[in-house]
Write a structure and sequence with these properties.
Strand content: under 5%
Shape: globular
Helix content: over 70%
Number of helices: 19
Number of strands: 0
């Protein structure tokens, strides 16, 4: 059995064991998209738009049925005073990621006729277990050549060792940092969602706790995905690059969920017209893109408001750039303003209800009167301070390894690793990280982006 076949089998087992009832969804999605792409490849260049439309409609129909139909029914009932009913389905794991991945694949097939891959290679591209459940949204041009070359390359023990360390760092971030920040944020948001007002200290501890929880949760998954892929000789694109250090919202979206931002830019914003038709339409296109980006994260008003806020942030950012305001602002001030705006938007992303989000924001802006503190403890603030220090003062793993994505040469990564490692200290830190992760492992939890 070839290495591709082994990895494909392992990926399917990984996905299907806990999600066997959704097996037909991902299998049919892979087969339908593959054969539509093959059909397009047989048509003359520039023809077959109707077939592309069929493929994109199929993908959007599947994700719409499972992810948005229930929410859409609720909205229609509220607007039209109807009594439509629709059962809420359990969301198939990873559907948002492999759907967007395959839409990009079909669009590129139509545009460039450059996707003549074998079925097993394509199936592994979609189902590769390190990135399947929560991204990154991998582009075929980045990964397919690596998959096709797997059987030609000898096993690289250096990459395996580096990937293992990267994986351990991700596990540590998830269990020791992200899951413990959740313990600070959850009581605050649960209280707010029940309709209770919050004090200034409680609101800020909850919002900063969630801001750091989401940061370390997504950073952990991104690093675990890259580390696992490294261990099998595949280099995934960067999906997370210290986004809270960004001096602007534009830069934030170049660092946060990088592959989603790239997809939205290349396949939605540019398709809408981008910046080719004047500044007004550019701002409209930005807003629509971010609004749909918010809806991609989940079927709920909180996600829509979060996307709308980031759309407004981007419009303001571009307008200030046009006026030259941002050039005169010190970088530290720009970073602080950007971070504050991001924290405020995360409140809508996290809160279960809109009322809960406004309760948290009211407390943050001291609009809730003199509510007594119920949740914020001194050790919470110490832990938040440590988290902020890690976020703003320390380099990330990709910076330490000078890793820039699939284009980074194996030799460059190995040489960089050899230059920075000190064997005994490295072994001690890795062992300590594993020990702490096991010691403090809470009840089973999932990554936040696993739910999207």
């Amino acid at each position: 059995m070839s290495q591709v076949a082994v990895l494909l089998t392992a990926s399917l087992v990984f996905y299907l064991l806990p999600n066997w009832e959704h097996a037909y969804i991902i299998v049919s999605s892979v087969l339908v998209n593959f054969f539509i792409a093959r059909w397009l490849l047989r048509l003359p260049q520039g023809t077959g738009r109707w077939l592309l439309t069929v493929g994109v409609t199929f993908n959007l129909g599947v994700i719409g049925y499972y992810k948005y139909a229930f929410f859409g029914t609720q909205v229609l009932n509220g607007l039209l005073d109807t009594q439509l009913s629709f059962s809420q389905h359990v969301l198939p794991v990873g559907i948002s990621f492999y759907t967007f991945q395959q839409i990009a694949f079909l669009v590129d097939t139509f545009r460039y006729r450059n996707t003549a891959y074998r079925l097993k290679d394509y199936a592994l591209f979609v189902t590769f277990f390190p990135q399947l459940i929560a991204g990154p949204i991998v582009h075929h041009s980045q990964v397919m050549p690596q998959i096709e070359a797997i059987h030609k390359k000898p096993f690289n023990w250096s990459l395996f060792n580096i990937g293992l360390v990267w994986l351990v760092v991700g596990v540590f971030k998830k269990i020791i940092l992200a899951d413990n920040f959740a313990k600070i944020a959850n009581p605050v948001f649960n209280h707010a969602d029940k309709g209770f007002a919050l004090s200034l200290a409680d609101s800020w501890s909850g919002s900063l706790g969630y801001t750091l929880q989401l940061y370390f949760d997504f950073s952990a998954y991104s690093e675990m995905a890259i580390g696992l892929a490294f261990m099998f000789g595949v280099k995934l694109p960067l999906n997370f690059f210290s986004p809270y250090k960004a001096p602007s919202i534009v830069e934030f979206w170049r660092r946060w969920h990088i592959t989603l931002s790239t997809f939205l830019r290349d396949y939605l914003y540019i398709a809408l017209g981008g910046n080719r038709k004047g500044k007004l339409l550019k701002y409209v296109n930005l807003f629509i893109t971010m609004l749909l980006g918010g809806l991609w994260h989940g079927a709920g008003w909180g996600f829509i408001i979060w996307g709308a806020l980031h759309g407004l942030y981007l419009i303001i950012n571009h307008f200030f750039r046009f006026l030259g305001v941002t050039r005169a602002m010190p970088k530290a001030v720009s970073v602080a303003i950007t971070f504050f705006a991001v924290v405020c938007a995360w409140v809508f992303f996290r809160a279960v209800s809109i009322e809960g989000a406004f309760n948290v924001l009211s407390g943050m802006f001291a609009l809730s009167g003199t509510e007594p503190n119920k949740f914020a403890q001194l050790y919470h603030w110490v832990f938040i301070a440590i988290g902020l220090f890690v976020v703003f003062a320390l380099p990330n793993v990709s910076q330490l390894l000078n890793y820039q994505g699939p284009e980074t040469a194996d030799e460059q990564i190995s040489a960089r690793w050899s230059a920075i490692q000190v064997s005994r200290i490295s072994a001690l830190l890795i062992g300590l990280s594993i020990g702490l992760a096991i010691m403090f492992m809470p009840e089973p939890t999932v990554f936040i982006y696993f739910n999207f």
